[in-house]
Amino acid sequence: MRIVGLTGGISSGKSTVSNLFKSHGIPVVDADVVARDVLKKGTGGYRRVVGAFGEDILLPNGEVDRAKLGQIVFSDPGKRQLLNRLLAPYISSGIFYEVLKLWLKGNKVIVLDVPLLFEAKMDRWTKPTVVVWVDPETQLQRLMARDGSNEEDARNRINAQMSLDQKRSRADIVIDNTGSLEDLEENFRIVLVQVTRPLSWTEFWLSRQGALVSLLSIVIGVVGGKNLYKASL
């Protein structure tokens, strides 16, 4: 099985690339979706976050006000690190569960869409890693246009993440998204060919099909060994 790591920065176009993978039939495990699930009312992640940040972050229905929590952590690096520490175990186990389900279905290529792929050291489990990159000014302008935010707020959110240049330096594949949507789709088609190439032998043995072949080989070996033992008696 090949697990492709997909990451980028805020307003870099990562979500667009993620959707392109989905539209081409490649399953995507989205860490943001997992993170929303682990913050739902009554979950372990919910209890830990409310215990650390207080009930002021709750909506009237008792769910976490994600926008308010986001404002708190983006303006305070210490609180952002605290939030990451609190939720990391729940998010990691949630991602593992989603990957396991896809493995059991026999998927050979899976994309992990993780904003903090490098920060959480999850790139150790992915190959290749794909970074969606834009230059800093383009990123700033797109974020301000998307959220209607001022320059200071936009820069604070961008600076709260590892820079795209740092991520680009650690990537196996870089998708340049400074151009138009058509340019992005053209770049994506090139990447799609790379990530859907035939599996290596190592990747094959890690797939469900490889595991079944291994199991069958063991069974045949055991049965054959018994027959040889009987024949020698």
TrEMBL record:
One of its GO terms (biological process) is coenzyme A biosynthetic process. GO terms for cellular component: cytoplasm. Pathway: Cofactor biosynthesis; coenzyme A biosynthesis; CoA from (R)-pantothenate: step 5/5. CDD domains: DPCK. It is an enzyme of class 2 (transferase). HAMAP family: Dephospho_CoA_kinase. This is Dephospho-CoA kinase.
